[in-house]
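On clarity, I found the account of how folds are encoded harder to follow than it need be. For illustration, here is how one protein appears when written out as sequence plus structure tokens.
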Amino acid sequence: MPKQSNRVTWVVISSWTAAISSKEVGFLTILILCTKQQSARLSRKDLIAKKMGGLIMIISNTDGSLPAVHCRVPRTNYTVQRRGGLSIFTLQGYRVSVAFSRNAFLVDLVKENIGTVLKLDSINNGNDWKGYDMLIFNSWHWWLHTGRKQPWEYVQVGDKIQRDMDRLAAFKEGLTTWSKWVDSNIDTKITQVFYQGVSPTHDGGEEWNSSNSNSTTSCRGQTQPVSGSTYPGTLPPAVAVVKDVLSKISTPVTLLDVTTLSQLRKDGHPSIYGFDGRRGNDCSHWCLAGVPDTWNELLYAILVSRSRRSGH
């Protein structure tokens, strides 16, 4: 299971701001722009090299990677197509199409007579994932939602249907089902598979040892990353689940290990500048441009390295 080193230090470049607007990335389902706080980055290389081309599919709960792509080449013409549950974003002139499949759990979410059922041992929508040069999977954020934000009424494993279960155990069950699907359906001569690691939240300031840390301290008002390359808090428990499942999969899957480098960016969230304004405090989603651009830089670096080794 190839992965990246977590030895990352963020550097603040005060003279740089993101030159994008809501008009330039109007294809977004959700758009969060916080350009004033987003001066910390790793580099400003273009995300996509023309020579690399291909069909890419992102299977996730959010389309945040799409604006990150376009923000790197904001003057480039693009097209967007909607085909059922797919959004297909094409950068004209780059020979690259990125399809986004909104799928928060990877496993099936089915409407039945009793209500919507999350089927942890079933993937019937996987046919939509076939035929791509690259698949990038991600899941976890929505597994913790309860109440009105929870999109299902029941969870099922085999013949057992229940109202709820331990969410981390459910996540592991679902991710194991996904790993079996990958082993049964992916031809690595055609398709590269990536799993984007767990995206952290910053709801508790005690994690980064803030001088005024208490239960109410969060990402609100944070304007600087955590210094250095070590995050004082612990990793989200889902990280261990992801690594355990990937360690047992037969098909080569590259882990984009973004958790620790993202933990350092306590300043990277919309906070009270998100959709809910001062009524809310969003410390789980990310500003754009921002941290998701760096995730794509890591992906780009891996692809360039592989391309050079293969002589392409």
In short: Helices lie at 65-72, 167-185, 237-248, 259-263, 291-310. The longest strand covers residues 54-60. Confidence is low (pLDDT under 50) at residues 18-51.
